[in-house]
């Protein structure tokens, strides 16, 4: 069993437990349920930098990245830096995140928030909406075409945008459908954790222009972004590069300034 399989196995058990504690009716009473969401796809289309900055404490491959800052400090720093949106990791066991992180981020900034999570159930999409997310992530590697369709349509009906993540041609081909807004290519192979920008380059021409193209993981330099822009990428998700510094907001500010 690889790390991704382990994460999904644990996630399915976690969702069953959560459903038994917090009913859907309770999630639907959240103040955010009727709130208009902010479009990340539109912001990326209009932006010169396209940076989606990530709040991430740790990861299975890197262990602890940074535990020294509050969520508020990080996300406010990102918003001030000019990030188009913020990705908030909410997985606890493997990434040290929580839904409280998403809630605190929503209370602190007014730019699009992505719930970065291993989504396997509609319940998690309701959680995302209830905690102030504007969009969700779906990972093609762990979902069938039918699951991608039902989960993305469910999200759209709640007013959430959908970023679908792929790693290869096969995942991309099974996933293309109108209920997606953005297609992200993860440059990290989730099974081996090998990182290469070639994943983004190879799949770029296969992604229809109806979708905003996002490149994720392994982007740590201005050169990497300049390398990917000619391939049609409008969004660039950066996490560890900012989080591993002494000041994530300042690191993002310098990075985004260099792109202008």
From TrEMBL:
Domain Indole-3-glycerol phosphate synthase: 4-253
Biochemical pathway: Amino-acid biosynthesis; L-tryptophan biosynthesis; L-tryptophan from chorismate: step 4/5
Its EC number(s): 4.1.1.48
Keyword field: Amino-acid biosynthesis, Aromatic amino acid biosynthesis, Decarboxylase, Lyase, Tryptophan biosynthesis
Catalytic activity: 1-(2-carboxyphenylamino)-1-deoxy-D-ribulose 5-phosphate + H(+) = (1S,2R)-1-C-(indol-3-yl)glycerol 3-phosphate + CO2 + H2O
First-tier enzyme category under EC: lyase
SUPFAM superfamilies in UniProt: Ribulose-phoshate binding barrel (SSF51366)
InterPro entries: Aldolase_TIM, Indole-3-glycerol_P_synth, Indole-3-glycerol_P_synth_dom, RibuloseP-bd_barrel
A GO molecular function held by the record: indole-3-glycerol-phosphate synthase activity
The keyword Zinc belongs to this UniProt entry's keyword annotation: no
Single Gene Ontology BP annotation: L-tryptophan biosynthetic process
NCBIfam families, per database record: PRK00278.2-4
Family statement drawn from the similarity comment of this UniProt entry: Belongs to the TrpC family.
Protein name as it appears in the record: Indole-3-glycerol phosphate synthase
């Amino acid at each position: 069993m690889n790390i991704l399989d382990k994460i999904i196995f644990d996630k399915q058990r976690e969702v069953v437990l959560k459903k038994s504690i917090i009913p859907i009716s309770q999630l639907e009473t959240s103040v955010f349920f009727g709130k208009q969401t902010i479009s990340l796809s539109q912001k990326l289309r209009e932006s010169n930098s396209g940076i989606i900055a990530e709040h991430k404490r740790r990861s299975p491959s890197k262990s602890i990245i940074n535990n020294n800052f509050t969520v508020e400090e990080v996300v406010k720093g990102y918003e001030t830096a000019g990030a188009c949106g913020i990705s908030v990791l909410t997985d606890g066991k493997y990434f040290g995140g929580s839904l409280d992180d998403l809630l605190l981020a929503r209370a602190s900034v007014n730019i699009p928030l992505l719930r970065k999570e291993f989504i396997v159930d509609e319940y998690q999409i309701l959680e995302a909406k209830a905690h102030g997310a504007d969009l969700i992530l779906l990972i093609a590697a762990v979902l069938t075409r039918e699951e991608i369709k039902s989960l993305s349509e469910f999200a759209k009906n709640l007013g959430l945008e959908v970023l679908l993540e792929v790693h290869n041609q096969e995942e991309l081909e099974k996933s293309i459908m109108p209920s997606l807004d953005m297609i992200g290519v993860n440059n990290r192979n989730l099974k081996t954790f090998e990182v290469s920008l070639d994943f983004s380059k190879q799949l770029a021409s296969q992604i229809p222009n109806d979708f905003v193209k996002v490149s994720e993981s392994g982007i740590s330099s201005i050169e990497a972004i300049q390398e990917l822009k000619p391939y049609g990428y409008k969004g660039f998700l950066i996490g560890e590069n900012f989080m591993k510094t002494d000041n994530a907001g300042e690191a993002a500010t310098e990075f985004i300034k260099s792109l202008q």
